[in-house]
Amino acid sequence: MFSEFITPGVPAAIFWTFVALAVVIQGISKSGFAGGAGILSLPLMMLVMPVQLVSATLLPLLILCDMNAVYHHFHNKVWAKVMEIYLPSLIGIVAGAAVWWWIGREGVEAYAGPIKRFVGVIAILFGLYIVGKESALQWIERVKPGRKSAVVAGVAAGFTSTIAHAAGPIVSLYLFAQDLGKSLFVGTVAWTFTLINLTKLPFYCSVGLIHKDVLLFDLVLIPLIPIGSYLGKWMYHRVSERLFNRVVMVLTLIAGVQLLLNVNLILWALELVV
What we know:
0% strand, globular
C-alpha cells in the first residue's frame, strides 16, 4: 500500500522513518519550539518520495498544524500585519501554482531534477539562516521594513510557500521587525500561514497535486502531528532550543546538498551495505 509514494530502491522501513520524522518535526516547529525546524521536513521527505507528492502530502498536514496554532492564539493577532503579507502573497501563490501547472503539463519526471535542486538551494540557505538567526533578527529589527518591503516579502512568501512550503523565515523576519510582542507575533504568524496555506489548497487541487491517494496517505500521518506538538511543548523546558536548531541545521544542510547535487546518500549507503 502507498507504493507510489516510495522512491524506487528505498526500503519501506527507511521511507516510513523519514516521513514520520518529517511530520513530527513539523509538529514540534508549529508548537512554538524551534520555529525554523520545519524547513527540514520537505528535503527530508524528498529524499525518499517522488517530488510532486511531497508538497502535496505536506499541505493538508500544515493546514491542520496551522489551525491548531490559531486555536491557541485565536485573539493574538494584528489583522493589519497579517494582510500586509497575505494580500501580496496571492501574487506569489498564483505564480507558484502556474509553475506546478506547467510542470504537470510537461511531465513531472522531466523537472524532478530542477525541483530537487531548487529545494536543495532553499534548504541550504535556510540552514545557514538557522545559524545566523539571532544576527538576522537583530539586523531586521534595526532596518524596520515598511509597506514596500511587505509587498516583496509577501510575493516571495507566496511563491516559495507554493513551490516548497518554505516561507517561514521570510514571514517571521518581517513580522519580528514590527514590534508586536511575543504573543501577538506568534499569533499573527499563525494566522498569516493559515490564510496562505488555505489559499494554496484549491490551486493544488486544480493542478492535480492533491488527489484521493494523497488524502488517504495523510490520514495515516495525522496522528504524528499531536505527537510532534507534545514533544515540542515537552522539549521547551528541557532541551536547549539553540542545540536543537544546530542539529536541524546540520541535517538540513546535508539534505540540501544531496538534493542540489541530485545524489542520494541513503541509496548509495544501502548499495555499499548490500
